[in-house]
Amino acid sequence: MSRHSRSRRDLEQGIESDFGRNLSYGAYLDLPTLLSAQHPRATPPQHDELLFIIQHQTTELWLRLVIHELTSACTLLGADDHRQALKRIARVKHIQASMTEQWSVLATLTPSEYARFRAFLATGSGFQSWQYRAVEFMLGNKNAGMLPVFAHDEEQHAELVRLLHRPSLYDEVLAWLARRGHAIPAEVLERDVSEPYHSHPGVVEALGRVYADPQRFWAEYETAEELVDLEDNFQVWRFRHLKTVERIIGSKRGTGGSSGTPFLRRALDLTFFPELYDVRSAIQDVEPEGYHGGDGRG
Ligand code: HEM
Ligand SMILES: N[C@@H](CC(=O)c1ccccc1NC=O)C(=O)O
Fold first, then answer.
1. Average of per-residue pLDDT across 45-65
2. Which of 50, 125, 249 has the most ligand 2 atoms within 8 A of CB, as the residue to mutate?
3. Is the minimum distance from the CB of 56 to ligand 2 under 6 angstroms?
4. ipTM of the complex
5. pLDDT on residue 294
6. Residue 21, pLDDT above cutoff 90
7. Which fold has domain 45-282?
8. Which of 36, 70, 156, 211 has the smallest count of CB within 10 Å of its CB?
9. Three-state SS across the chain?
């Protein structure tokens, strides 16, 4: 018989166990705080409320990291370090994938189970997620109308006002393109960044030149496509939220006071980076060699 048992792993000599003085796992991560922050409210207690709380808390933790990475991406772009900025964006894309995948856990909550504790949420709603709104602002979906929801918390409100008036990731990319010699119109570069961004034909033209010659403008082309990935991922998250909400509350109104799914559906029409989509329609299809016109019907 082998000396090594397959039923029990022997511990090694060096394994630390004196955490009276040494830093432990739980102390480093402040797990006592993290794991004492779940406070179900339903009476009598409902088994599924813990799932609901943890789904939101994990999302908020990931949003915290997204804000950290996007803040850094903006600073790096401002310093013309697009390579490092793209590293940040690559990480955000993986976080988004994880956040989107996580909807399947909440989708195990049936309408009957949710109905047993929904009333205890009162007027609470994800609409009041400060970090979610911060990410939307950082990506460029500026909307001062979102601020009153945060008026009860001076610090959060002030931070959102600050982000509203700061250039978004897209503003930083457009300024970076201009510094690299691309013809970004001055009125775009000097715009009031607290206002919603609208597509500008001059930016579509500038991007058209990038997309017409990716080899020549590889850095610009790659950066642009990374932004499209970010927006695509964001929309998939919104879509999965909408579909999860549909299967759990149907066409009920939201606890935040909105119409519910019609309100959420309208967010799917939004775009952070309008010209990156407009440019796609402007790209000429390449004709096959030896092609002499015709309507394609032979
Ligand atoms: C049972 C699960 C859920 C239901 C039924 C639900 C329902 C809704 C509804 C109806 C709204 C519209 C605002 C309102 O009137 O309340 C909303 C907004 C929102 N929810 Fe949820 N939600 C659920 C889970 C989540 C989770 C897990 C998150 C993650 C943090 C989340 C984040 C948000 C955000 C960020 C908004 C604002 C969206 C926007 O402004 O477009 N929701 N939710
Ligand atoms: N708006 C949801 C309630 C809800 O989902 C919620 C309530 C409190 C804290 C976070 C929530 N999540 C997302 O909106 C509803 O209408 O059922």
1. 98
2. 125
3. yes
4. 0.98
5. 65
6. no
7. Methane Monooxygenase Hydroxylase; Chain G, domain 1 (1.20.58)
8. 36
9. CCCCCCCCCCCCCCCCCCCCCCCCHHHHHCHHHHCCCCCCCCCCCCCCHHHHHHHHHHHHHHHHHHHHHHHHHHHHHHCCCHHHHHHHHHHHHHHHHHHHHCHHHHCCCCHHHHHCCHHHHCCCCHHHCHHHHHHHHHHCCCCHHHHHHHCCCHHHHHHHHHHHCCCCHHHHHHHHHHHCCCCCCHHHHCCCCCCCCCCCHHHHHHHHHHHHCCCCCHHHHHHHHHHHHHHHHHHHHHHHHHHHHHHHHCCCCCCCCCCCHHHHHHHHHCCCCHHHHHHHHHCCCCCCCCCCCCCCCC
